[in-house]
Amino acid sequence: MKYLIKAKIEIDGVVDKNDVIGALFGQTEGLLSPDLDLRELQDKGRIGRIAVDLKPQNGKIKGEIKIPSNLDKAETALIAALIETVDKVGPYNAKVQVTRIVDLRIEKLKKAVERAKELLKTWQSAEAPDVKDLLKEIQSSLKPAEIIEYGPEKLPAGSEIEKSDTLIIVEGRADVLNLLRYGYNNAIALEGAKGTIPESVKQLASKKQKVIAFTDGDHAGELILRTLLNNVKIDLVAKTPQGKEVEDLTGKEIEMALQNAVPPQQFLSELEKREEKEEVTQKELEKKEEKLAPQITVTEEQQKPSMPLSIEIPENVMKDMNELKGTLEAILYDDNWNVVARVPVRDLYDTLSKLEANKVKTVVFDGIITQRLIDIASQKNVSYLIGARIGNVLKRDEKVVLLSMYDLLS
User: Fold this and answer.
1) Which of the 8 DSSP states describes residue 191?
2) Following CA atoms 307, 309, 312, 316 in sequence, which dihedral angle do they give, to the nearest 10 degrees?
3) Which architecture, in CATH terms, is 143-262?
4) Count of CB atoms within 10 A of residue 125's CB?
5) The CATH number of domain 3-105, selected from 3.40.190.150, 3.30.930.10, 3.30.70.260, 3.30.70.360
6) Residue 92 in this model has a pLDDT that exceeds 90
7) H or E segment at 13?
8) How confident is the model at residue 217 (pLDDT cuts 50, 70, 90)?
9) Secondary structure percentages of the chain, helix, strand, coil, to 5
10) Which class for 363: exposed (0-12), middle (13-18), buried (19 or more C-beta within 10 A)?
């Protein structure tokens, strides 16, 4: 639109906007040729949307009318004069008076000129940077970003975690440092959280547009992810390649892991399918081991040395034992019932093989105690093997006590 007609209106009664617009159309209709009829002009886009702003005052109405026009100057002036002929709105007397016709093109030009002046002042006032300052800036960019402590828990984090719209949650301090090395300043570490997520992480995550959980691709990482998904708003799940940790990844590997992040629902679905497959495989392996192990007769079993059945198990371990049911997992404890490792049952034999002797005293696992496990437990001086049940074994070792997890829990 090129022009804007501004007029004030006074009405001796209370009406609404539609009444005013109806009066403008109705009382000007037929006064001029059809080509200059307000309704016809609006249909053709020559006249814009009529805006009416009304305010009641002592039982009357006062207000302003704005009519955009794309007509030429003479036609716009004629329309302006035409609306001043409106003398009634509904049953009430009314008076319309045009106060101004604005040339919108000139107004735009004035604003552009004023803005150009401001830009020119800013441009001229900007001083050329000192070469020394430029060199300092370049050198500072080469320094790795510093790690900060966030929240009352003093969690390791990047300096941009509050400014960035995206938050990356990792496991430990070393993970944050590695991400900082490659320019990711928006990560925060849980720093060894076991079972509980720091309150600072929960509150920070709730403010972000996107939250990515980025953990190691091992079993411990999966456990941390489960805890996060149960306590924090997570939008995407990213994992390292199998056998690698976040702290060891290259910049390219970090980029790929974050690009391949998936929604939590997809991660849980894939995890469930894999666990179902592993459960079937574990059961098949146990069946094969049972078939291969020679069967012992009742008489032979009775001739075996009696095993001590008394064992004082701490309450927290009994709780772990109860939670292990149906998981196909194993927990290894030292002499003081501290957790040494937590692994899938399929990896239990290999894990014990790699550990030093006397490092593990008790193994609790959701699986069958086989001859193979008894032999490796004996070699590593494990005192107790507590499984879902005891399979058919050829020989027992007096040093290794075999117990049923389900018997202890009953």
Assistant:
1) -
2) 100
3) 3-Layer(aba) Sandwich (3.40)
4) 7
5) 3.30.70.260
6) yes
7) none
8) confident
9) 45, 25, 35
10) buried
